[in-house]
Write a structure and sequence with these properties.
The complex is a heterodimer of chains A (324) and B (314).
Chain A lengths: L11 H8 L1 H20 L6 H26 L7 H17 L4 H26 L3 H20 L23 H19 L1 H11 L1 H6 L4 H25 L12 H11 L11 H20 L7 H23 L1
Chain B lengths: L2 H25 L6 H26 L7 H18 L4 H25 L4 H20 L13 H4 L1 E2 L2 E2 H19 L1 H11 L1 H6 L4 H27 L10 H11 L11 H20 L4 H25 L3
Antiparallel strand pairs in B: 1-2
Helix pairs in contact in B: 1-12, 2-7, 2-8, 2-10, 2-11, 2-12, 3-4, 3-5, 3-10, 4-5, 4-10, 7-8, 11-12, 11-13, 12-13
């Protein structure tokens, strides 16, 4: 039911490895990648590159936290990329029109939570599959964004708005967000009633209902939380460059879903952790960067990503079959 | 699932389509002309071919998100086989079609052999096939196809676009297979209750493998027509096709949970979408505005269906 599968009678170390198998695999992969690529091309380990890997992809990791919760609850959201594009544009528009920066940060996040509350309500109460609702939402957000902005870039953003470019103690702020949000979300999922009920609903909805959980309310709550994380991700995405392109970042939803799945969130719902999805987002960013440092053409990046998802999913299915 | 019930959804959809056509015709005098309608049919053919196959996929309770990527990959391979490997164009076409079909077979294999949920399996191959298209093409486009090749996408037979004949023929074949053959009944049985279908002796995995392979073939066929219509090959071709296709199928009354749906419904759904796109564009709504309308129509139609179901106590 929870992320940690209990193995009574084994040592604490065994339990730890058993519970966090996928996370440990991903973490070791990151370490191995750094060692191998660093030996081949030491420039891979330069401050600039490590900064760009972590800070440049923190928003993906943060969006993947929310996505993991949605998938653990047994649903999916293919509209998150479009939502992040819309959030970035709203934030940028507010900022250049002279609103205080905190308004430009907070209003888009509230907007994202409101949109996802609607999506969650449709999914939970009308029983329309989340893939259909979010496909429709993807098209509404994407079409709405382009027809309103006509794809015009937003520039001349006020410097105090650029939260992702701030560097307290020399470390990019996006990294603080990624670490703090992952830690908070991980605790939330493990130790609060609501967090545990997300696993219960994803594992077996009727059993969860019988245990006194309200699955509909849980699903709406999960989507609102997902909106919160997508909103924060959108603000970081909006403020990491000097301009906002007012378009939907292509295939961002796929990258986010991939991070969740590679991080060990089971595609069938019910298991997985947000630590895994953050690690996987970092792993994917490292692979992208490593391919460049190994002189592999960037054109092949997506094919590698596809193979990676496929391999992970097949491994997940094999592990499940062994378990049953 | 009774015949009268199915008929009712299609009747509603048919009436809706007629109303849309009348409204759109009154908004713009360019809409209801033979030239415009035939041209719209031309534009609908690629999505239509894939939607026919997708109807089978969704009736089994599955989904195929990789169709747009298969289209892109096939288009790229067509260009590479012809231009870079120097094969004669007809051979390149056949080989590209075979590769697209193989890509669909791989989907089916992953889904049936390894029991990966179709949504995730095809999400992975969506990335994989598009990645292969990007990697193989390195963002270079292929142009300069010979004149005769443009017949498939631009030619006419008896005044009707060539691909509309293909779509018409494919529609009849698909309708017959789904509605009148044991294979079609097996497709419904799998979608209604896969375990029950297995126990009643239906070769579930074989049927599914055929269906996903068919989806690959239809996407590949659409790719050849697409390349011929736009005269060039690019790796981003067919991006987002899955959304248009699934919207058409679901709007046509096929249940996303499987077990229910018809080819006629899919065709009506496609006509309604294409009419909305074209009619709204002619009455001055920008292209991206129509995407919003399609999203709203999709959610609205499913919502109406779900509420309808609930009122019937089912």
């Amino acid at each position: 039911m929870t992320a940690l599968r209990a193995h009574p009678g084994r040592s604490a170390l065994h339990r730890f490895i058993g519970g966090y198998g996928q996370e440990i695999v991903v973490l070791l992969s990151i370490v191995a990648l750094f060692v191998v690529v660093g030996i081949i091309n030491p420039r891979f380990l330069s401050d600039t590159n490590i900064n760009s890997i972590f800070a440049g992809n923190a928003y993906i990791a943060i969006a993947a936290i929310g996505m993991s919760m949605v998938i653990i609850a047994g649903h999916i959201d293919v509209s998150v990329g479009a939502l992040i594009g819309v959030i970035a544009t709203i934030a940028g528009t507010l900022a250049v029109n002279g609103y205080p920066v905190w308004v430009a940060w907070v209003v888009p996040i509230l907007f994202a939570m409101a949109v996802n509350a609607g999506v969650g309500a449709l999914v939970a109460y009308t029983r329309i599959p989340s893939i259909v609702v979010t496909l429709g939402m993807l098209s509404i957000l994407k079409g709405g964004l382009i027809s309103i902005t006509a794809g015009e870039w937003i520039s001349d953003l006020p410097p105090e708005f650029m939260i992702a470019q701030m560097r307290p103690f020399g470390i990019p702020s996006a990294v603080y967000f990624m670490v703090a949000l992952t830690a908070v979300a991980a605790m939330f999922m493990r130790y609060t009633d609501f967090g545990r009920s997300i696993y219960a609903v994803g594992g077996n909805m009727e059993a969860a209902r019988a245990a006194g959980i309200n699955p509909e309310r849980t699903v709406v709550g999960v989507f609102i939380l997902h909106g919160l994380f997508a909103g924060i991700a959108g603000i970081l995405f909006a403020t990491q460059l000097q301009v906002i392109q007012s378009t939907v970042p292509p295939n961002l939803e796929l990258t986010v879903i991939t991070a969740s799945v590679i991080g060990g969130v089971s595609i069938l719902g019910g298991t997985g952790t947000v630590i895994g999805s953050t690690l996987a987002a970092i792993l994917f960013a490292c692979i992208g960067s490593a391919l460049i440092f190994l002189n592999v053409s960037a054109y092949w990046l997506r094919a590698v990503l596809g193979l990676l998802i496929l391999a992970t999913v097949l491994a997940d299915m094999a592990r499940r079959r062994r378990a049953t | 699932m009774t015949a009268s019930r199915l008929l009712r959804h299609e009747t509603i959809l048919g009436v809706l389509t007629v109303i849309a056509l009348i409204v759109l015709a009154s908004l713009s005098d360019k809409f209801f002309t033979a030239e415009n309608l035939l041209n719209q049919g031309r534009l609908m053919s690629e999505v239509g071919l894939v939607a026919l196959a997708m109807t089978f996929v969704i009736v089994t309770g599955g989904i195929d998100l990789s169709v747009g990527s298969i289209l892109g990959l096939t288009a790229i391979l067509l260009g590479v086989f012809w231009k870079n490997l120097g094969l004669p164009l007809p051979a390149a076409m056949v080989l590209a079609l075979a590769c697209g079909t193989f890509a669909g077979w791989v989907n089916g294999l992953i889904i049936t052999r390894f029991r990966v949920p179709p949504l995730i399996a095809t999400l992975a191959t969506l990335a994989l096939y598009r990645g292969l298209a990007e990697g193989i093409s390195e963002a270079r486009s292929v142009r300069g196809y010979p004149e005769w090749f443009f017949f498939f996408g631009q030619g006419e037979v008896l005044g009707v676009p060539f691909q509309l004949w293909v779509l018409g023929l494919a529609t009849i074949v698909a309708a017959v297979i789904l509605g009148l053959t044991p294979f079609g009944r097996a497709t419904y049985a799998i979608g209604a209750n896969e375990t029950a279908a297995r126990f009643s002796g239906i070769r579930v995995d074989a049927v599914k493998l055929w269906i996903y392979t068919g989806a690959g073939f239809c996407s590949a066929l659409a790719a050849v027509i697409f390349v011929s219509r736009v005269t060039t090959t690019r790796s981003d071709m067919g991006t987002g096709l899955e959304l248009d296709v699934i919207t058409g199928v679901v709007l046509g009354g096929t249940s996303i949970f499987g077990g229910r749906g018809t080819i006629i419904g899919t065709v009506l759904g496609l006509i309604l979408i294409q009419a909305l796109k074209n009619g709204l564009a002619l009455s001055g709504v920008k292209g991206d505005g129509t995407i919003v309308v399609i999203g709203l129509v999709l959610i609205g139609a499913i919502l109406a269906g779900a509420l309808f179901d609930r009122n019937r106590g089912g």
